[in-house]
Amino acid sequence: MNENLTLHPDGRTTLTMQRRLPHPPAKVWRAITQPEHLAHWFPATITIDGDRITYGFGPDGHITENDPPRVFAHTWGQDDLRWELHEDGPGTLLTFTHTFTDRHGAASFAAGWHTCLTALLAHLDERPFHEPTGTGRLHEDYIAILGLDPATTDEHTTRVERQLTRPADHVWQVLGGPDATPGAPPPAPFTTPGLQPGPVTRAETAKLLEYDTTGGTVRWELIAGTGHGARLVIIHTGDPAAAPAWRRRVEELAADLAG
């Protein structure tokens, strides 16, 4: 695999993926531009009408570049997708880029496109494609490959944001959320070693847990994420040095969920 991320000054992120395909550019071009071929591997049902593209769900897009058989680029809502084909001996070097605003969703995007590109190759080879299992582990692999650090700090606050591979209800159960009671200590999975938690001040099932600490607060939130899992956001005020501990805690949780 050959993937990387580029962060832009405007806050957008570009995911780049390259694949060598043992098929000539003309054949690959048909597979990435014609709806009857896209139906075998693209993650949505595409209809093309002039420069307008509909995807069967979500916002429409439009074609921004069409230079056969070299470049095909189009939008999908606010995102930009670009496919570049270069001759590679008898085959094709495909460079795919996806530009988006949700940096923390990059691993979900990468895992999804990895599966799509695997299906594309199967279609080009004219062989069946079987949806893989263990996609949670693939997502976690891409967290490492792309170098996605979930933790940021400023003078007073640590913030950790991490896309998870399971829905909020499942995550809440794993964390012991059903045992969270305002006025009582938080369940241990909501804490880190060395932290002195105070009582829970607020709990909303599968959504939020908040408690006081010495000099600050800790707030866990489960919100809508990218793909099928919830997005976890932890904000710890009053102790910016807590970032490494929260980073480790979230990595442990993510690994448990993906296993």
From TrEMBL:
Membership in a protein family: Belongs to the AHA1 family.
Disordered: annotated span: 176-197
Listed name of the protein: Uncharacterized conserved protein YndB, AHSA1/START domain
InterPro entries: ASHA1/2-like_C, START-like_dom_sf
Phylogenetic classification of the source organism: Bacteria, Bacillati, Actinomycetota, Actinomycetes, Streptosporangiales
Domain Activator of Hsp90 ATPase homologue 1/2-like C-terminal: 23-124
